[in-house]
Design brief:
344 residues; alpha/beta; Rossmann fold; 2 domains; nine-stranded mixed β-sheet; 10 helices; Gfo/Idh/MocA_Oxidoreductases; NAD(P)-bd_dom_sf; GFO_IDH_MocA-like_dom
Length: 344
């Protein structure tokens, strides 16, 4: 089966993750690139031996394009993903699925109407460590999950984005919407839902633009740090911290505390999972290196997306899953802005 893929938006995420992974997938024959900035699409088409669409409509009207990666900036996801689904394409949408619940519902509804696959790129579910962690938690050897803490932080998107400056769209409220909460936080909230097989239903939080400035030297319009308390439907309690100011080292760790022991994920540079039981026994797992901005390895996301199209399977991250995480992010931001406890 030969699949032709289209990519909307030719920034860093397309260049470093989507395009190379489509290129490396044996079932993908070609990539068609679209960006509102034609130099960018031309650059990636040359780099990955693909072609260029001059408009969105041209890309979506091409019957030979079966799958679309929506790598546009956050405020456009609901527009492009909805349109692509209704044009009969399978869609892999970057996270967050949208900036509002109303717009996210439009995307989910378009998927239902079109019958096409919609997967959202919450890539933490795909790492070997997180898959193994879920297996260990599911088999019950650690007993009931009681509490957890998770964090995700690095030195900020201005070191990763396509133009490597403080003018990055991630710092603009109208385009990024949620600051670090939507960039990094939403990934770990989705991961908690996945690992615990549970949903967060109550939150409180503090946020701030503590250190980042925009291209004019002014504090950015969105948060660069956010810290929250979380309670799930099944009564588990946890904390989550997300940051663009972890200068020196990225932190992507999660610790889950159970009746019979503790599981630490991405906590130790050598072992991706450490299990320490109640009676002091320790089991370490060496599975793979964590995907960081400086260490781009294959995320497995594109392969999983292509497989679910090819084999007609349910995506590992559905529109509904993405909607659940979006609701939690919006709740956390509301809690921080109103100094209150918010029910999701």
């Amino acid at each position: 089966m030969n699949i032709k893929a289209g990519i909307i938006g030719c920034g860093s995420i397309a260049k470093f993750r989507h395009a190379p992974e489509y290129k490396g997938n044996p079932y993908v024959s070609e990539i068609v690139f679209y960006d509102r900035n034609p130099e960018r699409s031309a650059e990636l088409a040359e780099l990955f031996d693909g072609s260029v669409a001059t408009t969105i409509d041209e890309l979506l009207a091409d019957p030979s394009v079966q799958v679309i990666s929506d790598c546009s900036s956050n405020e456009n996801h609901h527009l492009f993903s909805t349109k692509a689904l209704l044009s009969g394409k399978h869609v892999l949408c970057e996270k967050p699925i949208s900036l509002t619940i109303e717009h996210a519902n439009e995307v989910v509804e378009a998927q239902r109407k079109s019958g096409k696959k919609l997967m959202v790129d919450h890539n933490q579910r795909f790492t070997r460590a997180h898959q193994k962690a879920k297996e260990i938690l599911n088999n019950g050897e650690l007993g009931k999950i009681l509490t957890f803490r998770t964090t995700f932080g690095h030195q900020g998107p201005e070191h990763w984005g396509v133009n490597k400056t403080n003018s990055t769209w991630f710092f603009k409220k109208d385009r990024s919407g949620f600051g670090v909460a939507g960039d990094l936080g939403i990934h770990k909230l989705d991961l908690i839902h996945y690992l615990l097989d549970d949903e967060i239903e109550q939150v409180s939080a503090f946020q701030g633009a503590l250190d980042k400035v925009d291209e004019n030297g002014e504090p950015i319009e969105v948060c660069d740090n956010i810290v929250s308390n979380l309670k799930t439907k099944q009564g588990r309690l946890g904390t989550a911290a997300f940051s663009w100011t972890y200068y020196g080292e990225e932190d992507n760790s999660t610790i889950i505390y159970c009746e019979k022991g503790i599981m630490k994920i991405y906590h130790d540079p050598e072992y991706q999972i450490e299990v320490i039981t109640k009676d002091g026994e320790q089991v370490n797992y060496q599975l793979e290196a964590i995907q960081t901005n400086d260490n781009q390895t294959n995320t497995g996301v594109i392969n999983a997306f292509i497989n679910c199209v090819r084999l007609d399977e349910e995506p590992l991250v559905t529109g509904q899953d993405a909607l659940s995480s979006l609701k939690v992010v919006l709740g956390i931001l509301e809690a921080a802005e109103t100094n209150s406890v918010v029910k999701i």
